[in-house]
Amino acid sequence: MKRIHGIAVIFCVSILIETLGSGEGKILxxxxxxxxxxxxxxxxxxxxxxxxSEAISxxxxxxxxxxxxxxxxxxxKEVISQARxxxxxxxxxxxxxxxxxxxxxxxxxPGYQYFDISILSVTLNQNIYDFGRTSSxxxxxxxxxxxxxxxxxQEMLTLNRDVTVSYLNLLxxxxxxxxxxxxxxxxxxxxxxxxxRLSAGVGIRLDITQARVNLESALLQRIRSxxxxxxxxxxxARNIGIRKNPHFIAQExxxxxxxxxxxxEADIPAAYQNRPDLKEVEDExxxxxxxxxxxxxxxxxxxxxxxxxxxxxxxxxxxxxPYIPPYPFSTFNVGGVVSVxxxxxxxxHHQIHEARARLASRNDQLQEARLRISSEVQEAALAVRAAxxxxxxxxxxxxxxQENDRLVEKAFHVGTARSVDVVDAETSLRQTRExxxxxxxxxxxxxxxxxxxxxxxxxxxxxR
Length: 464
What we know:
Shape: elongated
Structural class: alpha+beta
CATH topology of the largest domain: Outer membrane efflux proteins (OEP)
Helix content: 55-70%
Low-confidence stretches: 1-44, 459-464
CATH superfamily of the largest domain: Outer membrane efflux proteins (OEP)
CATH architecture of the largest domain: Up-down Bundle
Mean pLDDT: 81
Strand order of the largest sheet: 6-7-9-10
Number of strands: 10
Order of helices and strands: EEEEEHHEHEHHEHHEEHH
Largest sheet: 4 strands, antiparallel
Strand content: 15-25%
Distance between the termini: 20 Å
Number of helices: 9
């Protein structure tokens, strides 16, 4: 696999450890790109390390759909050359050799036995003027090529979005799995503490029961996180175009690089300029105009120049004509042909009406596409704003749970809080941490989708 490296890698989770007075570690979420952040927990997994840029590059090379659109663009370029060939001279040659004999000829023409005719002819036909028939054909082929290119660009844009979103989902799943592992570790630690206090005669059995319930809940959450992690790996492999799941491990990257200010008054016109699917519809309109011009040109004359060279050889006495030359003879003709359509049963008339109706339909399709894109941009902007609110709420909830955990832990050490309260506080802290992880990556994913609605996705250069 190109540009993909690393077999057994350590995925470092972007978390900080806040050490309390009790010496017990508490996991604190922080951005991996934040200054001074140092990963203090690691998830050891076997897999293939891959960056976002590597994932996108692999997908661009592997996906059969992209190759399909590339081949369509190449084929359409050849159609342009085919249409342009009408501008150049058309040269053709033919050779004919005929042998014949007749019983009747033997009686009608004394001495007649057979004839063997050889004829070689070379014809040159040059289009002189056709009132835009050829030029409109070439123009239509060019717009078809631009449509093929727009379809390719749209497929590449969609591929970039899908790979980026699946990569972010994998990162989120990795963080979620690390958090779930930390939760299991904390739950086991509290169970051991509860058992130790009960053995020392300073605890109660209810603390042990509560700690066991908390541990089972943490183990169940880890199972869910492991399943989400494996599902995200499969999704990324599928979007890259790999049938066998190589167990990718996503590398850390800063989510801030996906941030973009939302200005709908400027972003919607920008989407009209950038969206490949809209450009495809615009090219369809231009192609429809060229098709209408081509059909109209059928009403006008076509002027062609013709030159022909003729070489023949007929044996002496053939057909009983004594003055036929016994040696090959040749001649040439030069002239022109003017073709004027007079009546074709209304064919051209109906073709013109058909072309006009198709052009009107494509114009309606263009307006509908503009309306659809405007709605998509606005809906994507609303989704980003909702994700931002969700992220703010998650941060507030996490900070509150963190403060509550600190106060409960302090109260427990001075004897004003129970062990059950400590477990509840840490459970709440773990849940708000998971909610914060999901909110952060959901915001990044919605921002990627907003960029996609604008027709551009700014991608990381090195995937970090």
